[in-house]
């Protein structure tokens, strides 16, 4: 079945958005969300009385008509390698996610972990890296049976290695990774390595969202499926963070939820305008914008 990496999907979606040239703000977290008092509206001379103020961890302030929360299951932090040498190597030779497979080309790579991500990336990188070693503390995995079988077949074919053990130390030469020490049941094994990918899972926390006075259940935001609006007016949620009966955590579902939420959000931003549904195939203005992007 044809597929693509998550980063490829993101890149294609950004390319699709490019003709509309709307502002984007990356590497920021929305910390505060509050209604702007009515008396402030007159000062700002807004046409519409209901406005929201979003503040970020970088100090930016956004005066908006509506907010759509698409934060996944919350703010994620990776389970980090608890070794003294780890911090200095992070983002250079120690990785908690794979964003660009090309950086591992021709390298000796150790992938540590026992879940689907560890299996999938060890298998994927074996065709790019000089050598891949999968490291897990035990023989059993918390991963799809098919991936486990494929990994064992790849090991048997000499395409990669699998070691049962735990990280004991990271060996460095200057500011680069040179190898890892692995504590096995009986011994310590030294393994040369240029890159370490540690996929021990993620720690999820709602973060500032929990302070936004939204109706939440089990760390997720309760929404009305008519337009995926939350318990607060003009605040919407879509994707894994949204909770409703029979919720399916699928990319397809997230796209559907976001589309309906934004249709309602449009009315908050432009209550005096009618929202007309159009298709790219028969709307001349939209076709021209996309053609000349």
TrEMBL record:
Domain of life: Bacteria
Keywords attached to this entry: Flavoprotein, Oxidoreductase
Pfam families linked: Pyr_redox_2 (PF07992)
A GO molecular function held by the record: oxidoreductase activity
Domain FAD/NAD(P)-binding, residue spans: 50-247
InterPro entries: FAD/NAD-bd_sf, FAD/NAD-binding_dom, Ferredoxin-NADP_redctase_2
Name of the protein described by the UniProt record: Thioredoxin reductase oxidoreductase general stress protein
Source organism: Cupriavidus basilensis OR16
């Amino acid at each position: 079945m044809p597929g693509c990496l998550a980063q490829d999907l993101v890149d294609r979606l950004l390319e699709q958005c490019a003709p509309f040239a709307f502002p984007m703000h990356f590497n920021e977290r929305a910390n505060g969300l509050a209604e702007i008092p009515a008396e402030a509206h007159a000062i700002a001379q807004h046409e519409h009385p209901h406005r929201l103020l979003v503040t970020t961890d970088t100090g930016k302030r956004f005066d908006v008509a509506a907010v759509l929360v698409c934060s996944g299951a919350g703010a994620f932090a990776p389970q980090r390698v608890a070794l003294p040498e780890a911090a200095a190597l992070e983002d250079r030779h120690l990785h908690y996610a794979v964003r660009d497979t090309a950086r591992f080309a021709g390298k000796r790579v150790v992938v540590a972990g026992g879940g689907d991500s560890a299996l999938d990336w060890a298998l994927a990188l074996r065709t790019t890296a000089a050598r891949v070693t999968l490291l897990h503390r035990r023989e059993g995995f918390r991963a799809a049976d098919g991936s486990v079988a494929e990994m064992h077949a790849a090991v048997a074919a000499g395409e990669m290695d699998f070691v049962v053990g735990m990280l004991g130390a990271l060996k460095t030469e200057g500011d680069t990774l040179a190898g890892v020490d692995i504590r096995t049941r009986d011994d310590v094994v030294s393994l040369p390595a240029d890159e370490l990918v540690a996929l021990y899972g993620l720690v999820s926390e709602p973060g500032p969202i929990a302070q936004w006075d939204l109706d939440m259940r089990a760390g997720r935001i309760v929404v009305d499926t008519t337009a995926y609006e939350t318990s607060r007016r003009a605040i919407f949620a879509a994707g894994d963070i949204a909770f409703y009966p029979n919720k399916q955590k699928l990319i397809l579902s997230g796209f559907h939820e976001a589309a309906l939420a934004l249709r309602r959000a449009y009315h908050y931003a432009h209550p005096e305008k009618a929202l007309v549904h159009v298709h790219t195939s028969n709307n001349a203005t939209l076709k021209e914008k996309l053609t000349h992007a």
